[in-house]
Amino acid sequence: MTDLAERHRELLAQALDAIDRRTFWAGYAEHPKAYGEEAPAVGQERFEALLGTDFDTGQATSGYMEVAERSPYGLELGIRYPSVSVDDAVVAASDAMAAWGRLSPSDRASVCLEILDRLAKDPFTMANAVMHTTGQAFLMAFQAGGPHALDRALEAVAYTYREETRIPEPLRWVKPQGSRDPLVLDKRWIVRPRGVAVAIGVSTFPTWNGYPGIFASLAAGNPVIVKPHPETILPFALLVRTARDVLSEFGYDPNVVQLVVDTPSAMVTKDLVMRPEVGIVDYTGGSAFGTWLEENVHHAAVYTEKAGVNSVILDSAADLKGVFRNLSVSMTMYSGQMCTTPQNLFVPAGGVKVGDAMVPYEEVVARFVGAVDGLLGDDARASGILGAVKSETSLARIGAAAETGRVLSESREVGNADFPDAIVRTPVIVEVDTSSPAYATEMFGPVIFVVKAESTDDAIASAKAVAKEHGAITWLAYSTDESVVDAITDAALEAGVSVAFNLTGGWFVNQSAAYSDFHVTGANPAGNASLTDPAFVAGRFRVVGVRSEPAA
Amino acid sequence: MTDLAERHRELLAQALDAIDRRTFWAGYAEHPKAYGEEAPAVGQERFEALLGTDFDTGQATSGYMEVAERSPYGLELGIRYPSVSVDDAVVAASDAMAAWGRLSPSDRASVCLEILDRLAKDPFTMANAVMHTTGQAFLMAFQAGGPHALDRALEAVAYTYREETRIPEPLRWVKPQGSRDPLVLDKRWIVRPRGVAVAIGVSTFPTWNGYPGIFASLAAGNPVIVKPHPETILPFALLVRTARDVLSEFGYDPNVVQLVVDTPSAMVTKDLVMRPEVGIVDYTGGSAFGTWLEENVHHAAVYTEKAGVNSVILDSAADLKGVFRNLSVSMTMYSGQMCTTPQNLFVPAGGVKVGDAMVPYEEVVARFVGAVDGLLGDDARASGILGAVKSETSLARIGAAAETGRVLSESREVGNADFPDAIVRTPVIVEVDTSSPAYATEMFGPVIFVVKAESTDDAIASAKAVAKEHGAITWLAYSTDESVVDAITDAALEAGVSVAFNLTGGWFVNQSAAYSDFHVTGANPAGNASLTDPAFVAGRFRVVGVRSEPAA
Question: Which residues 130-189 on chain B approach chain A with CB closer than 8 angstroms?
Fold first, then answer.
């Protein structure tokens, strides 16, 4: 065992235990205070020092390029990134694979864990980078972009390592032949990488969604070309620089991890993934391009997380206050720009049973709208919850959604005291009924539909139909009736959607805990993969058998 | 645990142990004598009783159809099979999935093992069915078509069961919150099937190649529609009938397993696999259709085993006699109709080092040809090794191959005393050099190329280039030089081919042992999957998470 493997042995062992048990565990502290008093300011300074500069990843480059990266907080980023051609990157990755692919699983895992450790030691630089590229509020950017993403990465390394090391050590195989001499073969199995991996980043949660595929590919021996979203580059640039530093420091080819950046007017992703050297593609983003990948990339394993239409079904509850306290946060957090955000709140027209009483539909809806409006009434608090809106398209959906039904609450502009140019909007809340096509497509951004259902059964059937047709990642349901819980679980199984029940406290359906919650089922159009399960990692390497007749 | 689960508990436990250890183990006896004195005659009678009849699988059918099934031994089969439309089969499978998909992994595995047990108790009916549809000699048909195929099936069930049961039982997840109350969620995970599975059979080894996918799909909760090769139907009809009998007997919907038969003039496979209900496709067969599946079926997981060009590299040996004793069998067994048969024998022009002496190229080649001719000189012995040639296309390759180089040994017709109409040919042996395109494509059937290489390095480079371009499943190499062994292992890793060294005894490179040898690496164009590894089973089911806040 190398020193590096020894250094990370205990953490890897704990992660391996965690993925088997799936009870709570975390490898990286999620509380900003855990990092010391100086850390926030240091990270802030490091981030600011990057603005307006050439970001050097150490890659061979023909120069630094202007990009379309922009901050929803209105901060001028102005960072230029190395210009690296698809051809150069693929050739360098292929060259790097030869040695990286032949390291032991333990050596590769330990390099991965060293990279994670370096990132964990500087979470505030990353937090600022994530905040100012994605529009997340600071605390979310810190946690989801930092320690939670690192935990998702460690989880992926653990899964991959576990899978690789299930193959036995060299052995002698002896097949009895009755009274004759047995057949004897010496056998060993060698893990080999699948090919060059391409990780295509998303604009909203680049690290949290991207790390699992990147680190699973690395741990399995594949070099990774990271292709960030053209408008959210810096978080991945930090990752790539850190990874390359670690690789170089320990004597490995830094081209095991490379950054290839593009712009909306000259996109390179299709060229990149169609290269025959590519063996793996990981993608998080919109459905159109994800489906293009699934349909056109036949020479590589393609893992997608695309869009989904997530639903809440409100059947009955012990107490509506807790319901709306939880829902008002989960439906507005980061302005609906999470792939796990519930978009549709189904409410039966006959009302909702609360304890022994029936609360009429209109009252339920009014209380929900009141809870959202109350939560977001104060600009400072609203900013902390909503963050900022990343894309023009998301912003445009507010108006489009308002056309589709009765507006229960208008979207309003929210002022952000720290960043006056930040684009912050409260969600528009629109009422439609289950026959409306409006709620059946993903309205990523600050849009909430209250869907008036004929009954709980109608709500379940509608949520299921939408999930099967357009995908869904999460369902949340409230019911005190066991038979309704069973019916919703049944529908969730058929639609391939994970489901949560009766969340009223401090856990939100949007949240997916590493080592415990599988993210995406892969069983509906929201994606073909789960981050992280054995199916997500098992195809990232191949096994070559070597059999030898022992010398006489 | 049900009675059925209890009945098969011990065998499943042994298989689970075997896939972890990969040392020798077998679940089913491979020696015909193990089945008692009466068994061969009983199986023969049962087989003969099927000839010329309507084969009833118990499926709803509009009638029985004539098919193109034919015996390479010249026996008139004349069996008619139920006519089942794609639409009816898919609807029935979807209906059957609801209940089958919700059984426990243990219950499904035990039903699978009961099916295997029934098949294991009547191996001679299957042996005759396999022999007379594929052209395999009796002993191969018995072993590869019976117990070895059953072991491959049990292996797939064990892998699937292991994968499903790695997910923990329901648990309480508790996340500490410092001085505040912890976050508490009750979590459980439910395995759900991927969708209707379609298993597309091959004409030569329907059961051995087909069982792994079929039983992995079944164990994972997917109903299976078995679509045999239009000319090799009976083995799968026997499987389907047995499976349906077991399912009915234990109260399950027999449509969990269905047979859909077609004819060359009205093929249904494309219609079948393009149905949106289909979630899994397993395929063994030619590259053209396998590639079509990989490129066109985006809505389902596609597992292929296609063609490959397998090579032997002869560098040096302790003794040529053992080399050719082994090679003459492996290169002629079942007339080269195994996906693992070595097609190309690379011999360096400078000769082969044997002990301390250099045996000149021409002498090496002459001794190889002599060994093959000697082995196949006697018609009775030749028939036992060669079996019969299944397809007209394979037969036609003899003449085509002879045109491409110097014929070292002509193909000759071999008489089969038991079956005068059997189509039996010794292989044509053709000499080409490494610049020839002839040896670079798969010549499935009785064709052997001796490829004259400039050197061992040229041989390695040529074998590697062919494997990377056209695929390969096996390599066999002879060398007493460790550096050559390393170079060949290195090339095998890069080409993604499993490799055997210095086989001179009773084990042939064509053979792939269940529980120990991975079949196909999935790392070159010979196929995208390995039968059976975790990647082959992990995607056949999906996991839906259910999280609930505990009631106050």
Answer: 163, 166-168, 171-178, 183, 185, 187, 189
